[in-house]
Write a structure and sequence with these properties.
mainly alpha, globular
Length: about 350
């Protein structure tokens, strides 16, 4: 049990998380200097905020990073509460890119992609340290749009691909436990309860995500087990939906000790995600059916269901962001800050 299931599952999860963090850090260096300014300019309306947040979350590969940054900007008074509603909806949509890439089952490309990206990174490091590179920079070579030199930009882009290759490798390692985990008594007990009541699977997804602070890791695990045939697709979809609630824990932690506005942002994140869950949990068979029209591969079906859930729930919630109540709440928070 330990050698065939727990060790590979934990090892694959660590590789996956390491790849996520590497990719996130590299993308932050590429886009980070302009992120705050972009957020402030692109959130004039909830619709524009949602579109921008979807793009920046897909770029940074971390909805948590964008949500926590938003709470920080609100706490600092650089962003008003009303402008954050579209951002919250957009972070859910932006995470779908990672999910869809995981659903493609590109595990065979992990090693070649890792080797190629490390080769490019090493070449860029040597390029940046050569005399010719220094002379080129001194002669006025144009840096990239975020202030990095070209060798530095190539280094970070290479690290992005290296991180993605580790994600693929982690998924492949986790997939290997499929035949063994099917034989585990505890797993069979969980499947029996989840088959009778999908809220068991939802609770598992929410708790695991809150524990590891990464919805992508839990979604990747669900996709891997579904692709290996160890997890029914409908149970995988329920786990994925639960992960959307579990990821709210990080936002709540980030809001601790912050301003009233920052706490409202965190709780709005919880409210919008829980609302989507309450709407879609009874519709899991429908999500499964629609996902089947797109792909018949189990892992891809879980990924497609996640995309459908996030996009539809965000679009349904978008009109609510234009209600006058949010303006009144913002006015009351401004009055509270003035009194303090």
């Amino acid at each position: 049990m330990f050698i065939h299931v727990i060790l590979p599952l934990c090892g694959g999860l660590l590789i996956f998380l390491g790849g996520m963090k590497l990719m996130e850090a590299a993308l932050r260096h590429l886009a980070g200097p302009f992120l705050t300014r972009w957020l402030n300019r692109a959130t004039v309306s909830p619709w524009r905020g949602m579109l921008f947040s979807s793009g920046i979350t897909a770029l940074l590969q971390s909805s948590t990073a964008v949500t926590v940054l938003t709470i920080g900007l609100v706490n600092a008074g650089l962003l008003t509460y009303g402008r954050t509603l579209g951002i919250i909806l957009g972070t859910n949509i932006g995470t779908c890119l990672t999910t869809e890439l995981m659903g493609l089952q590109l595990g065979k490309l992990a090693v070649p992609l890792l080797c190629g990206s490390l080769l490019c990174w090493g070449t860029a490091v040597l390029w940046g340290e050569t005399v010719a590179g220094r002379q080129y920079a001194a002669a006025g070579a144009s840096p990239s749009s975020n202030g990095l030199s070209r060798p530095q930009a190539v280094q970070f882009i290479s690290l992005v691909f290296a991180g993605f290759s580790l994600i693929l490798a982690g998924i492949r390692v986790m997939q290997a436990v499929g035949p063994w985990i099917e034989q585990a008594g505890l797993f069979r007990w969980f499947l029996d309860h989840a088959a009778a009541n999908m809220w068991w699977a939802f609770a598992a997804g929410a708790c695991l995500t809150a524990l590891v602070h990464s919805s992508a890791a839990v979604i990747g695990m669900a996709i891997s087990l579904a692709a290996a045939g160890a997890l029914p697709v409908d149970v995988g979809i329920a786990i994925v939906i639960g992960s959307n609630v579990g990821t709210c824990v990080t936002a709540l932690i980030a809001a601790v000790g912050g301003s009233v506005s920052g706490k409202f942002v965190a709780w709005s994140h919880v409210l919008l995600n829980v609302g989507g869950v309450l709407l879609f949990m009874p519709l899991i068979p429908g999500l499964d059916m629609v996902a089947t029209w797109i792909s018949t591969e189990p892992g891809a079906k879980v990924a497609h269901a996640q995309t459908l859930f996030n996009v539809i729930s965000s679009l349904l919630a978008l009109p609510l962001c234009y209600l006058p109540i949010w303006t009144r709440i913002e006015e009351r928070m401004s009055l509270h800050r003035t009194k303090r």
